[in-house]
Amino acid sequence: MCDLATMFPTAYIAPTAIIGNPFRPLLDGREVAVNGATEIGAGVWIGHYSTVGQGVTIGAGSIVEEYVAIHHRSAIGSRVVVTSRSWIGIDVTVGDGSVIRGHVGDNSRVGAGCRIAGELIHRQLDPSIPWDDPTADEPAPVVGDGAFVGWRALVVGGVNIGPYAYVCAGALITRDVPAGHIAHGRNQITHPDGWPGTLGKSPFFDRQRHLDQARRAGAAVTQPPGPAQPCAVVDGSGLVLAPA
Fold it and tell me: I want to staple 184 with a disulfide (CB 3.0 to 4.6 A). Which of 5, 90, 168, 237 is the partner?
């Protein structure tokens, strides 16, 4: 453990995990700047062979499974689960109650109550720019509260995935996805009411149906009753590649 790391006594850190791991030297000789201590909250559980970079904060009750990498200055909320072999880049934010089971690239933003099983990555518009060069920084994806990104889906560039949107497994998304909509295939966007399979009828989209009904009735749009948490997903495996 690094000298600049602090953790609650109720946290569990596996003996082979590394907390406050220093980042490698950059190719141009610079070092990644870190202005705060690594903080591990109460009741956090970190599994074997995982590395947590300098300046990372992990909120209370979160679980980091084995062989996970969380890089510098990232902020992981409370009750987050990061599953085995996931990768979280520099300056990432993950909201409370989310599940990460994939690759979350540098500077990405993930809201509360999300499930990310795919990849949030940059576009790499100019691969001729040297690796580690500051000018290579590009906008990163932003995922709204309660959204789902399925297995091996790719969300590329500075796009916004709206709250409670559903990105199907294997999708390639380079455009914004409206709240409560289904993204599938190559940038195909479908309202749940237009989806012929069982996914469109999932309780996951009840929030969007409530908002749509309020708009059609001309009433003020309010949040649907109940806690602001994603509902259960019928096709929870995420293995919906196209409308059934």
Answer: 168
For 97-115, give one letter per residue: b (16+ CB within 10 A) or e: bbbbbbbbbbbbbbbbbbb
For 20, residues 6+ apart whose C-beta sits below 8 A from its C-beta are 1, 2, 3, 4, 5, 37, 38, 52, 53, 54
The domains found in the chain, sorted by start residue, are 1-91 (2.160.10), 116-123+135-228 (2.160.10)
User: HEC profile for 114-126?
Assistant: CEECCEEECCCCC
The number of residues making up the chain comes to 244
Residues 6+ apart with CB under 8 A from 236: none
Residue 82, strand partner residues: 64, 100
Whether this prediction's pTM lies above 0.90 is answered by: no
